[in-house]
Write a structure and sequence with these properties.
By secondary structure, the protein is mainly β. It is built from no helices and nine strands. It has a single domain, classed as Jelly Rolls (Sandwich). It is about 0% helix and about 45% strand. The model has no long low-confidence stretch (mean pLDDT about 95).
């Protein structure tokens, strides 16, 4: 199969400020590849592979465009350590009106990363 890169959005909420951080992501659809996060110019294959949380946040939602062929989920990392959470693309499609809530916490300064898995 040929990889089918796609885009997505991570929605985080600041625990003190209540601010919503909508962070765009790029998924290369390559097993064991890191997702790329918007570093200020949109998410792409050359974007940073992590998002640094500006305050303590709660990851509430992840929405991913459908169509990937080589990967089916992402493993969430907190400062390069697995959180134990896997987010399956089928449960987090942008077209789904009932995406599963995520609710993973990150402290200020923590790097959020995701590894794409087959």
């Amino acid at each position: 199969m040929v990889a089918a890169p796609q885009f997505g959005t991570f929605a985080l909420v600041g625990l003190k400020s209540g601010r919503i951080y909508n962070v765009d992501a790029y998924f290369s659809d390559v097993a064991d590849g890191l997702a790329n996060f918007d570093g200020g110019a949109g998410a792409s294959a050359t974007s940073p592979t992590s998002f640094t949380c500006p305050e303590a946040v709660l990851l509430q939602d992840v929405s991913i465009v459908t169509g990937m062929t080589d990967t089916t989920k992402v493993q969430v990392l907190r400062n390069n350590q697995p959180t134990g959470d896997f987010l399956r693309f089928t449960q987090h499609l942008t077209t789904s009106p009932a995406r599963s809530p995520v609710r993973i916490g990150f402290q200020a300064g923590t790097e959020l990363r995701c590894i794409q898995k087959a």
